[in-house]
Design goal:
Elements lengths: L1 H4 L17 E2 L4 E2 L7 H15 L5 E6 L6 H12 L4 E7 L2 E2 L2 E2 L8 H7 L3 E6 L3 H16 L5 E6 L12 H8 L1 H16 L6 H20 L9 H36 L2 H4 L1
Helix pairs in contact: 2-3
Bound molecules: thiamine diphosphate.
Length: about 270
């Protein structure tokens, strides 16, 4: 996945999907750039889980902005009507790109999920241990066939939506304390003994950082390390593909015309 994020040819989707479009068949995992689509996709995964892999559940993450998508609301209904094994985690950071969510959202999102018949819980999304515990409770519930569950996690947005986002400066200013609080929570959770020895946890964080550093450089240190080159490669191979398809279509059309001429159909026309 890290290599995909860097646009590498040996990334999860050959460096073509980028961070928004990740798919893994062996892990039964998918992401999409279509805002709100994670929940309908989650409903599909949950249906498959119930039919094909009894005892497993589907997990979907969504944002607060996405919660106003029509297809997502239909999915909340269907998942409840069919009592599907689906856990949705809604991460509410108060923003949908540059729109304050409160300006476009009616009512309360937890009440909304509850109204569809979902089991719901609210959690402080910056408290990693609480998220782990409450998610664990809901996973158990969903796994035991008691229908879908909704975990609503509030957290600050630590950065702008994208690198050129003019809100970057503003949100940095707004969330200075929040950043410290969140990172403090993440670090103390990583060091808590109940999830394994502190030493093992620090070692695992170090391993993860090492993997990221290696993925960034890449074994060959060639120009494929640059995501811009990856994008250019993808464009070039798409152009080749288009040429191939055009040529095939031309051939088929020519063959069809010839066949029609031979059969006298064109003369009739
Ligand atoms: C169907 C669709 N509409 C609009 C967009 C553009 N868009 C990308 S992110 C985003 C806001 C999403 O807000 P939220 O769900 O709160 O997620 P967050 O920004 O917190 O990650 C929008 C509108 C999109 N990708 N897909």
């Amino acid at each position: 996945m890290l290599r995909e994020l860097l646009g590498k040819p040996d990334g999860l989707c050959h460096g073509r999907g980028g961070h928004m479009h990740l798919f893994s068949r062996p892990h039964l995992a998918a992401t999409s750039g279509i805002v709100g689509s994670s929940v309908p996709i989650g409903v599909g995964f949950a249906l498959a889980a119930r039919r094909l892999r009894s005892g497993s559940i589907a997990l979907a993450y969504t944002g607060d902005g996405a919660m106003n998508q029509g297809m997502l609301l239909e999915s909340l209904n269907l998942a409840a009507a069919w009592a599907l094994p689906l856990l949705v985690v809604c991460i509410d950071n108060g923003w949908a790109i540059t729109t304050r969510s409160e300006a476009v959202t009616g009512g309360d999102l937890v009440d909304r999920a509850r109204a569809f018949g979902w089991a719901v819980e609210r959690v402080d999304g910056t408290d990693v241990v609480k998220v782990h515990e409450q998610a664990g409770d809901l996973v158990g519930r969903v796994r035991h066939g008691r229908g879908p569950a909704f975990l609503y996690a509030t957290c600050p947005r630590l950065d702008g939506h994208f690198l050129g986002d003019p809100l970057i400066e503003q949100s940095r200013h707004l969330t200075g304390d929040a950043t410290r609080k969140t990172m403090g929570g993440v670090i103390s959770a990583a060091l808590k003994a109940n999830g394994g020895a502190a030493g093992a946890r620090v070692a695992s964080m170090a391993r993860m950082m090492g993997t990221m550093a290696r993925a960034r450089v890449g074994p060959s240190r060639d120009r494929h390390g640059d995501p811009m080159h990856a994008a250019a490669r993808a464009m070039a191979s798409r152009a080749e593909e288009r040429q191939r398809i055009d040529a095939e279509v031309e051939q088929e059309v020519a063959a069809a015309i010839e066949a029609a001429l031979a059969g006298g159909e064109v003369a009739h026309a």
